Amino acid sequence: MRSSLSGRRSLRLAATFSLLALLTPAADAADSRAVPDLLVQPAQLNARAAHSLQLSVGRAGKRLVSVGERGLVLLSDDDGRSWRQAKAVPVSVALTAVHFVSDKLGWAVGHSGVVLNSADGGETWQRQLDGRQAAQIVADNARAQLATGGDAAARHLREAEGLLQDGPDKPFLGVFFADAQHGWIVGAYGLALATADGGKSWQSLMTRIPNPGGKHLYAVGQDSGGLLIAGEQGVLFRSTDGGASFVRLQTPYAGTFFGALGLGGQGLLAYGLRGNVWRGDGASWAQVELAQPVTLTAGLKLADGTVLLADESGRLLRGDAAASRFTPLAASLPTGLTGMVQAADGALVVSGTRGLNRVEPATLTAEAKK
Q1: Whether 184 contacts 243, CB under 8 Å
Q2: CA count, 13 A, side-chain hemisphere, 43
Q3: How does residue 26 score in pLDDT terms, banded at 50, 70 and 90?
Q4: Smallest Cα–Cα separation from 49: which of 7, 82, 22, 8?
C-alpha cells in the first residue's frame, strides 16, 4: 500500500494496546474476506460489554456515549457509574471515535471506513458511509481534479485507485462536527472527508490537504484558529476557511501526534509518542517536559480551563490552562487508556482496553505522592 515503511513502524511502536488494531484491517476478522460481512452484521448483545475494549467516549448532553470493539456502543445516564448497551448498531466492526453535537445528534466512525449516525442520543444508529463508498468518493474527486491539478492530482488518483482495489479495509480514526450539518472525518493513509448536510453526502478533502504519501491522520477538532488535524510523522494541518483549504503547520517533532488541543488565546498543545508534548502557536514551539517518556493517547480541556493528558501506562497528568507544566494525579487506572470525557457532575470518565472507569471530581485535583 502507499504508506511508507517508517509509517508502519511508527504505528507498531504506538500500538502496545489497541492502536495497532486500529490500523490492521484484519483485526476484526479472520481474513479480509470477512470484512464485508461485519459491515452488515449488527453488533451482538454482550453481557460484559462494559469491560470490553472501548476506544472513545463522549457526551450527548448529560448522557455519556462510548464506542469500541465489535460495534459495541455503551450508554450511561448516571455520569459513568453504570452502563448499558445501545439498542441497535448495524455493524460489528470496531468503532474508533464518537462525537455528539447535542443530546440527540451524534456520529461514530471506525473500521472498514464506516460512519454511523444517531438521532436519539446513541440508542440506535444508522450507517451513512462505508469504505467502498468512501474510496469511490475519493476516486471521483481525484479524477475531477486531474485536468487542472497536475502531478498532485495524478498522485491522488493513484492513491484513490489503490483504495478502490483494496476494498473497505481502511479505518476512520477521528470525527468532529461543528454543528448538525458540517462535519469532518479522518483516518488511515490520509483518508479525509467532509459533509455539509449532516452526513447525507460526503466530499473528499484529500486534494486539499498537503499530505504526500498519505500519512495516517488520527484526530480532527477545532480550536480558535479553525479546524485542526493531527497525524503521524509530526503532521498538523489547519484550515481557517471551514475546510476549503489546509496548510501544514511546521513542527519540530517528526514522530506521531495522536491529538492536539486549542489553548484559547495561548496557542496549541500537541501530544503523542514517547511522552512528546509540544505547545506553540503554529510557527514556534516549545517542548513540555514530562517525567516519563510514555506515549500519550488522549487529551482534554476540563471545565475549569485546565488541561488533562492520559498515557498508555494509566497515568493522568494535569496541566495549567497554558499547558506549561503537568503534574501526575493520584488516580489509579488500568493501562491502555484510549479516551476521556468530563461528565456533567465534574467527574472524569476514561475509556480503555478494560472498559470504562470513573474518576471522582476530588481526585482530579489530588497529586500523586512522590
Answers
A1: yes
A2: 28
A3: very low
A4: 82
Q: Centre a 10 Å sphere on the Cβ of residue 68 and count the other Cβ atoms it contains.
A: 28
- Dist. CA 343–CA 365, nearest whole Å: 16
C-alpha grid cell for residue 40? 452488515
Q: Which residues pair with 339 in a beta bridge?
A: 351
pLDDT for residue 32 is more than 60: no
CA diameter of the chain:
63
Nearest to 228 by CA among 271, 289, 292, 286: 271
Q: What share of the chain is helix, strand, coil (3-state, %, to 5)?
A: 25, 35, 40
**How many residues does this entry show for the chain?**
370
Confidence of residue 18 (pLDDT cuts 50, 70, 90): very low
Contact 110, 90 (CB under 8 A): no
- Using DSSP bridges, classify how beta strands 348-352 and 355-359 pair: parallel, antiparallel or unpaired: antiparallel
Q: What is the pLDDT of residues 303-352, one digit of tens each?
A: 999 999 999 999 999 999 999 999 999 988 999 999 999 999 999 999 99
As a whole number of angstroms, the distance between CA 181 and CA 171 comes to 22
Range of lowest pLDDT (22-26, 93-97, 106-110, 139-143): 22-26
Nearest-angstrom CA–CA distance, 332 and 32? 38
pLDDT at 370: 60
Mean pLDDT of all residues in 19-23 = 42
Q: Residue 369: beta bridge partners?
A: none
How far CA 105 is from CA of 11, 108, 141, 162, 210, in Å, comes to: 32, 11, 28, 33, 31
Helices (H), the chain: 5-14, 19-22, 35-40, 131-166
pTM exceeds 0.85, yes or no: yes
Q: CA gyration radius for the chain?
A: 19
Which amino acid, residue 126?
Answer: Q
